Amino acid sequence: MKKRQKAIMWLCLVVSFFVVPYADAFEIGVRGYLWLPDLKTADVKTIQNGIEGSYMDAKELLGLGKKMNFAGEIYGGIGRHHGSIMYTTAGFSDNTVLTADVVFNGVKFSKSTNVKSDYSYDMLDLKYQYDIINMENLLAGFSLGPILQGKFVSGELKLNSATTGDQRRTYNSVFPMVGVGAHIGLVANLLEARVQVTGGGYGSDNYSLEGLADVSVSPLPFVDINVGYRIVKIFVDKNDFKMDQFFSGPYLGLTVGF
After folding, report:
1. Residues 154-176: tens digit of each pLDDT
2. Coil, helix or strand at residue 58
3. How confident is the model at residue 21, as a pLDDT?
4. Of 22, 62, 76, 116, which has the highest C-beta tally within 10 A?
5. Taking phi first (over 0 means left), then psi (-120 to 50 degrees means alpha), and beta for anything else, what does residue 185 get?
């Protein structure tokens, strides 16, 4: 028992040795976002059983557009090191009458057919930032550093008509990304701003670009309200599937952190 107590004591001393010097710079918290992205571009093409599909502009042809989406984030940091896990889920759906013939998933949807379309995706983003410049202890703090990011995307496009039934195509992609992030303390801890820009992938055929910028105000201790803008571009080109999508729009966030 005494050996266990000594081991626990030494462990506490070691942890304190590394943590105490950064106590003022330690942070942990959660954020929730309501994001209203506009589907600027949503071009999709499929090949099924050797049948080459139409290169569809889903936004124009299928009438997909704005819809409120949700994102949640867990973040933490100590000293110059910051990490976060962010999950975003989104979905778009509409009914439209086709103005041209469409071939999707090897099936033809004829002109003038009423089609119900559903497009959904989930994104999981893991980020790590190291502050090369760190002046957060000043009244108007400032930090700047590189970001390493891994983006995991899963999506599905489904078309349905009375004659074809459900036709759907799913995809999964992983993108290694790099970028830069900056944080500015405008009025001590009451008003702050941040900017993040990242991008990367596998050459010119499979890549993702992302950026966000927001301003936050702290009306209560440990609570921030965020107002910002986020853009996401994803391009996937596989043997039987091609997709080019671009989302952008404002968001409102609530942060609870310590």
Report:
1. 988 899 999 898 998 888 899 99
2. helix
3. 44
4. 62
5. beta
Q: Which two tokens stand for residue 36?
A: 């209203």
Give the per-residue pLDDT at 136: 64
| Total residue count of the chain as it appears in this document | 258
Report which DSSP code applies to 53: P
State both tokens at 9.
């004591």
175 alpha-carbon distance from chain centroid: 12
Of residues 12 and 68, more confidently modeled: 68
CA distance 126 to 149: 5
Rounded to whole angstroms, how far apart are CA atoms 22 and 159? 54
Give strand ranges (E) for the chain. 27-35, 38-48, 51-52, 56-57, 69-78, 81-97, 102-104, 107-109, 114-130, 133-134, 142-161, 165-187, 191-202, 206-220, 223-237, 241-257
pLDDT for the residue 208: 95
Least confident of 38-47, 115-124, 143-152: 38-47
Residue matched to tokens 């090897």: 106
- If pLDDT is split at 50, 70 and 90, which confidence band does 139 have? low
CB 207 within 8 A of CB 182: no
Q: Percentage of the chain with pLDDT > 70? A: 88
d(CA 187, CA 139): 7
Distance CA 165, CA 110 (A): 13
Angular region, 165: left φ>0, alpha ψ -120 to 50, beta rest? left
Query: What are the residues facing 241 on neighbouring strands?
Result: 46
